[in-house]
Specification:
Helix content is 50%, strand content 4%. It is mainly alpha-helical. The protein starts with 9 loop residues before the first helix and ends in a 23-residue tail after the last helix.
Amino acid sequence: MCSGGGTLSLDEFKVFYKQIVNRPEVHVVLARYATNNDYLSAEDLQLFLQAEQGVFDVTLDQCSDLIQKYEPTSDGKANNYMTVDGFSSFLMSEDNSSYSPGDLDASYPITEYF
């Protein structure tokens, strides 16, 4: 994997990064809602948000906006679809209704939460 000299080239770093941040459960969820197994359309994202997140008032325009905001590929943005990388970014964002760091009170010792 390493080209030598103890450092990674940019391409090697990208491969390494993908290996350590790969979350198989995100692939499973994406595949469950994608009409095409490789990406989510705006309609697919809307279905996911309604069925899994309980966001029933989300519009297709809002889903397209989310795709434009979180999809890292120019092809995905141009064709209005979200790849697994964009979906992962969205899931960890504040735009995802299930992720709200402001709701956490982490002022107690960790043993108090279990």
